[in-house]
Amino acid sequence: MAEAPGAHRFAARVLDWGPPSEIARELEATDSDPEGVGIMVRKARIYAVRLEEVPLKAAPLLKQELLAVGGDAAHARGVADHSVASSPAVLLATWGQYQRLLPKLRRQPFSLRPLADEVDRALRAYAGRGPPRLVGAHRSLSLGPRPRVLGVVNITPDSFSDGGRFLEPARALAEAERMVADGADAVDLGAESTRPGAVPVSPEAEWSRLEPVLGSVIARLGVPVSVDTRHAEVARRALDAGADIINDVGGLREPEMRRLVARGGAAAIVMHMRGSPATMQQDTAYADVRTEVYRALAGAVEQAEQDGIPSDRLVVDPGLGFGKTAEQSLELLAHVGELRSLGYPVAIGASRKSFLGWATGEPDPLARGDAGLAAAVHAAEHGVAIVRTHDVGPTVRALRLWERIETARRALPASHEAMAAAEPEL
Ligand code: HH2
User: CA 396, CA 407: separation in Å to the nearest integer?
Assistant: First the structure.
């Protein structure tokens, strides 16, 4: 091949790197000293931490301490002339700079100690690998490195994409079996549609649809079984019948639901939704949808733990399409990785939803499988642990490919011992 022309004499290229192990390998490839690599890895990435309502007196101190370690912080202009009582903030620093910053903040007044603890927890949760498994009532779901696939079977006449197809118990069972054969890691059975404006179903009617399918699915399939219900009565019966996970689109807001999950030793998917499916699209006004969803999920899991559900049994889900406009769902999906800062596995359900139709121009939910795959791969890229989908086979194959690509990124660097002292890795 011909010699590079003068303009490319040094072959300058911006490295498209991801996790710290990949950064370390790129640095090693310069034949750099291994100890130096350990030090440089900590300088290679900026972590931006967003905070809400930082007290007025704390904000300038925070900025000053960040500047002192070589980072920076953004806060409201009104902090300078005291025209605000508190301010949001974005902290900017490398891993190494945070390690120098946090002990200093812990010695400061004006709530900077609890603020430092919270930043520390969020950073470790975000950068870490996340919990290795979700512990269910009987069976557990091992998590990572690629997202686990939760196959959806709706035993309903009116679900938005598969309504009526699996109302017959034998068909629902056959669909669940097919999903497991296609590589589903767990199955989610729902007997009430939660699509916008769906007519609510009584717990008795919901259970009568669910019961014949749930028993056979538990008996016949070797994977954890999740039940998608908002009703404590249905959850109680499902747990008595041997279900492992309760998938509550109501976000465990009912105390009885939390009590049942705790008592049954079950796992729970805590999904964000304002109001109920019947009313949720009437109020989609959020000042800031990401912050509101984040805070609501943080509150829900904190309450769940207080009521006796251990953290290794909880999953958070932003509830795409639940009381959100298409733009808001896309915004949540775009930033889904930040939910990892909460320290729980993150699940998403984008499959076939109308926001995918809005984004792609495809009106038929059954023809949105490919858009769902793109959403699943995006989710994988951002550390989502569980993808809920109707299209199991293609999703499993897409995520297997994603995992192969990731493996190429994550080969261990030679200086991995020095790395272990540097920063944790997703
Ligand atoms: N979406 C639906 C139902 N349950 N659970 C979680 N955790 N996350 C989701 O995004 C989610 C969910 C809606 O989809 P589907 O079950 O296919 O439709 P319907 O509610 O009409 O049965």
Answer: 16
